[in-house]
Structure formats: C-alpha cells, structure tokens
C-alpha cells in the first residue's frame, strides 16, 4: 500500500480527492490523514513518513514549494494538485514530478497512482526535487535541467547540452554535444512541447533541433541544415519559412 497524506487548504478539495481515492484507489493507497497548512503538513510528514504527498501549490499565503524547502530530506513522492501558475507547472513538468489539475479528474488520478506503483527509488526522488527547485529559480533556457527516464533510471541533463532529438516511432533519441545518446520512451511531440520555448525547432517530422548548434543552412526545396556534429538534416518544405525566420531572430 502507498502510505499517503493530503496537504490542501480547501476542505471541498480535500473531500473530493479523499472520495476519489476511496472509490478508485483503495486497493493501492492508504490515506493516513489530511492537513490544511504548511506547518501541519511538515509535522505530519516528519511523524507519519508517507510514501506519497498530494500537495496543493497554493496553501493560504504560502505554497507547497515553501513546505518542501523546509524539509532536510525529501524521501517521498509528490503529486501537486493545482489550478495555478504556468511557471510552476512547467517546472514540475521539467523535473518529472506529477501534478493534477483541479477539479481533479478521476481518470487522471488513477493514472497518476498507477504510475506511482512503478515507483522510482527513494534516492532518485531527492534528485528530482533538486531539479525542481533549480527550474523554479532559473528562467533562462540555458540554465534548465531536465530529468530523462531511461531503462536504468533517470539521467539529469542541461537543456543547453542537447544538440538534437530524433524520432524513432514511439521513442526519441537525444543527441548530446558530448556525443552521448539517450533513447527515451517518449514521442518527439512531447519533447517539442517541452523544449519549444528554449530555441528548439522541429524542422521535420523526425527531427527537433537546438538552433544554437546549427552550423549552416543549404538552400533547396526545403533545404537542409548541418549541425555542430556535422550531421546534415533535411528541412521540411512546409516548415522552411518558419525555420528561417527563427534562425534570423537568434
């Protein structure tokens, strides 16, 4: 059983989440208690040692991040429950921490809990929180780190170290500037959504490029680019104009 607590300042949100857990997740989740303030949450975490905390982003005048920052060790999983602030959601997404948007959808909750059943080792969770706070403190793309799930666990990399991403059907291969390659069970579309605002551009159905590593552009119907690793990549005809505009803006 996943030993769980809820930290949320709104009783109707606590009631809804508690009810959904009882209806859909009773065989895998044991709810040990609910708490309405950051201070109560900290005390409960230290005393109850939960495996999972459902943590509201906005708790009265404080945040769930304030709670996490006051703990010496984070050896539990976190699922944020929130309707707030895109910057927080983006930071959470970058660090591979789950979140549920309010009002919580039963299917989303079940999916999040099922993912947690294949739980990451506790010593990896502290690393994920480190990435979370790093992303919250840094607004420049070059400073961002993301966690990449591999068959052996998680790898933490700088966004600025990613040269390009290449689609392999339902997998994506990430090419790093140090010539390492990582193959991840995510689609290229997911990485396009994650990295699109950090000078990455999808020039082809199969290729997402870090524009900082484009060495040259060769004219043609769509043309092609040569990357810093000397790999030449075709540019889709329909993406050509937008791609050249992006390049000119750098």
Structural notes for this entry:
- By secondary structure, the protein is an alpha/beta fold.
- It starts with a strand and ends with a helix.
- The chain is elongated, with a radius of gyration of 21 Å.
- It folds into 2 domains: 2-136, 3-Layer(aba) Sandwich (Rossmann fold); 148-249, OB fold (Dihydrolipoamide Acetyltransferase, E2P).
- Helix 4 links the parallel strand 6 (77-82) and strand 7.
- The strands form 5 sheets. A 5-stranded parallel beta sheet has the order 2-1-3-6-7, sandwiched between helices. Strands 12-11-10-14-13 form a 5-stranded antiparallel beta sheet. A 3-stranded antiparallel beta sheet has the order 15-16-17, with no helix packed on it.
- It has helices spanning 11-24, 38-48, 64-69, 86-94, 106-117, 122-137, 188-195, 240-249; strands at residues 2-7, 29-35, 52-56, 58-59, 62-63, 77-82, 98-101, 145-150, 153-158, 162-168, 171-176, 181-184, 200-204, 207-210, 214-218, 224-227, 232-234.
- The protein is 34% helix and 33% strand.
- It contains 8 helices and 17 strands.
The poorly predicted ranges are none
CATH topology of the largest domain: Rossmann fold
Strand order of the largest sheet: 2-1-3-6-7
* Classification by helices and strands: alpha/beta
Strand residue content: 25-35%
Major sheet characteristics? 5 strands, parallel
Spatial separation of the terminal alpha carbons: 51 Å
- In terms of quaternary structure, the protein is single chain
Question: What is the residue-mean pLDDT, rounded to a whole number?
Answer: 87
Number of H- or I-type helical stretches: 8
Rg to the nearest angstrom? 21 Å
Bin the helical content: 25-40%
The shape is elongated
Number of strands: 17
CATH H level, superfamily name of the largest domain: Response regulator
Reading the helices and strands in chain order gives EHEHEEEHEHEHHEEEEEHEEEEEH
CATH class of the largest domain: Alpha Beta
CATH architecture of the largest domain: 3-Layer(aba) Sandwich
Number of domains: 2
